[in-house]
Specification:
By secondary structure, this protein is mainly alpha-helical. It has six helices and no strands. The chain is elongated, with a radius of gyration of 20 Å.
């Protein structure tokens, strides 16, 4: 919702490098996810699709988050200058600007938790990593 608002409100957000980053990451992630769900309906999930479902987030999730943050960052100057929704807040508080900043700051503690959860889901789905054999001398 926040990103839709930023993209609809700010031309600079749509023209930032963050937009193709998040669009590409979201698109690939959803294509893999819904292919996985479709295969699950037929109870035929080929291993390559399972692997993609539980591995591509390693690249796509940070890429998407970086894109989201860049889109919000590129929206900040316009929000600061135009003060949208300022009439809804008492005084001269530009609450929309501070809300965007707060949301961006929240990515710092939330991202590692969500990423860690996805890593644990990957371990459950794919099993533990293969350990190299110890050489006998």
């Amino acid at each position: 919702m926040v990103l839709w608002g930023a993209l609809a409100y700010s031309e600079s957000a749509r023209q930032s490098v963050g937009f193709p980053m998040l669009f590409g990451a979201w698109t690939l992630a959803e294509m893999i996810r819904y292919s996985f769900y479709l295969a699950a309906l037929f109870k035929k999930q080929p291993y390559p699709l399972v692997w993609l479902r539980y591995s591509m987030f390693i690249i796509l999730y940070p890429l998407g988050v970086a894109g989201e943050l860049l889109v919000m960052y590129n929206t900040l100057p316009k929000v600061a200058a135009e003060q949208p929704f300022a009439s809804l807040a008492p005084g001269d508080l530009n609450w929309a600007y501070y809300a965007y900043v707060a949301i961006m700051v929240l990515y710092i503690p939330v991202f590692p938790v969500l990423y860690g959860h996805m890593l644990s889901q990957r371990k459950k789905a794919l099993g533990p990593a293969v350990q190299p054999r110890k050489r006998r001398d």
